Amino acid sequence: MSRTITARAIIADALFAITVLGEGESLPAPEGQLGLRLLNDLVDSYATQALTMLTVDRVTHLITANQATYTIGPTSADITLARPVTIDSAGVVLNFGTSTENEIPLLFLTDDAYAAIRTKTLTNAIPTQIYYSPTIADDNGTILLYPEPTDAGNYLALYIATQVDQFTDLNTSVILAPGYARALKYNLAMEFLPYFGRPVDPTLREAAIASLKDVKRTNVKVSDLSLDPGITGGTFQSGWYNINTDQP
């Protein structure tokens, strides 16, 4: 089950694991501030690893006619949330919030693909492609819709993996999904070792590796199997094949 825990508790447990703190000893202020920095560095590194992301959230935002560029991040005037390192998938939602709502997937453009577009000001009623640049200006990323949409009233749907939140201070309680408290404790202990001149303990190292593997194993998502239409060849140009009728 989920754990409610403070940064102070995680840091104290990590220092106890490397025998810097003894049983029942309070966390000194300097070690607490060092631990908070290292703990947030560790959490920040988890944002770069797909399998440390717990869930994927669907975020929607109104598309403005004749506006192709949107920012996303904590200080964004468009989509305000933690700046995603990547966006898993996206779509344009027609008739948003009605019984006839229809979501049309958007094709993601790579850096090279977007750079290769000659006429970047091309317009269309709705966009068909999306380009995401995780820029760090003001800690916001940049989303570009292509072609530039001219219809108003449609929505952009983004599917974004949720990151582990940073710890704002030592004493604020946070809720962590199963396995995360243990992974943070033992991996933070490994981060502490050079600061206190401690050698690497093989048992501690194995606990750090195993606890992070447990989290990643839990976060493995089942993916839909896709088939490139080019593989089927012949008359099966659509890429669909019915195994029961032996027909496309």
Describe what is shown at a glance.
The chain is α/β, with parallel strands linked by helices and 248 residues long. Helices cover 28% and strands 22% of the residues. The longest helix is centred in the N-terminal third of the chain and has 18 residues.
Describe the 3D structure.
There is one protein chain. By secondary structure, the chain is an alpha/beta fold. The chain folds into two domains: 3-51 and 164-218, Hypothetical protein yqbg (Orthogonal Bundle), CATH 1.10.3230.20; 56-161, no CATH class. The protein is 28% helix and 22% strand. The chain contains six helices and 13 strands. It has helices at residues 7-17, 29-46, 111-116, 180-192, 202-218, 229-232, and strands at residues 3-5, 56-62, 69-73, 79-80, 89-94, 102-105, 107-108, 123-124, 129-133, 141-146, 148-149, 155-161, 174-176. A hairpin with a 7-residue loop joins strand 5 and strand 6 (102-105). Helix 1 packs across helix 2 (29-46), helix 1 packs across helix 4 (180-192) and helix 4 packs antiparallel against helix 5. The longest helix is centred in the first third of the chain and has 18 residues, at 29-46. It is elongated. The two termini are 47 Å apart. The mean pLDDT is 90.
